[in-house]
Design brief:
About 45% of the residues lie in helices and about 0% in strands. The protein is built from four helices and no strands. α1 (about 30-50) runs antiparallel to α2. The termini are far apart.
Length: about 200
């Protein structure tokens, strides 16, 4: 008499149903990409204010920074789309951390913007994807270089002598006049600039 067939043994660690693939948008890098994109949106907007409060060499520098952040913005949007995500859109308006009336104020804002953009890329620089780490490192390096270009001073380190140089002490390089310059397209109808540096919530969102 034939023995009954022995049923196959299934390991409890193996599921009979295949696990659904993880969407690229759900990967840890998706949130970091989105936060970096938000920082670039705010930087582009803020540089519209900086350009509207400067002229000559300072305005040319602001225009170059505006174009650089706009290029990074477009690059991040493309990356998010390629990974199956949907890029967020910029806010309709942003709030400034202080009133920008003079070229000196504009330089302070530019320094603060670049410093916060560097911070926004730090999370992405720790991603497992080497391509994203490289992108974040280069973007942070560019912003750090621009911040130093606006304010070529290094603050004192703890325990070391030096000048305590912060954004509030920034002044326009090259001795630009401190009078109110021509306003830019980033102004609101009230005559007051309405932008915000990276890291804060857009107005009206």
């Amino acid at each position: 008499m034939a023995e009954p067939a022995t049923p196959p043994v299934v390991s409890p660690a193996v599921s009979s149903a295949a696990s659904p693939p993880v969407s690229p948008a759900a990967a840890p890098s998706a949130g970091a990409l989105g936060r970096a994109l938000s920082a670039e949106y705010a930087a582009v907007y803020a540089y519209g204010v900086v350009g509207g409060r400067t002229k000559g060499g300072l305005r040319a520098r602001a225009t170059a920074a505006f174009d650089a952040h706009r290029a990074r913005r477009d690059q991040l949007r493309t990356l998010i789309t390629q990974r199956g995500g949907t890029p967020t859109e910029p806010g309709p308006s942003y709030g400034l951390p202080f009133e920008v009336r003079t070229p000196s104020d504009a330089v302070r804002l530019a320094v603060l913007v670049e410093q916060r953009v560097v911070t926004a890329y730090l999370e992405l620089a720790a991603d497992r994807d080497p391509a994203l780490r490289r992108l974040a490192a280069l973007a942070a390096q560019e912003s750090a270089t621009r911040a130093y270009g606006w304010q070529p001073e290094i603050g004192a380190f703890p325990g070391m002598p030096g000048r305590d140089a912060g954004p509030t002490q920034a002044g326009p390089p090259g001795g630009e006049p401190t009078g109110t310059a021509q306003t830019g397209a980033a102004q609101t109808g009230t005559g007051q600039p309405d932008a915000e540096v990276p890291g804060a919530t857009p107005s009206g969102s």
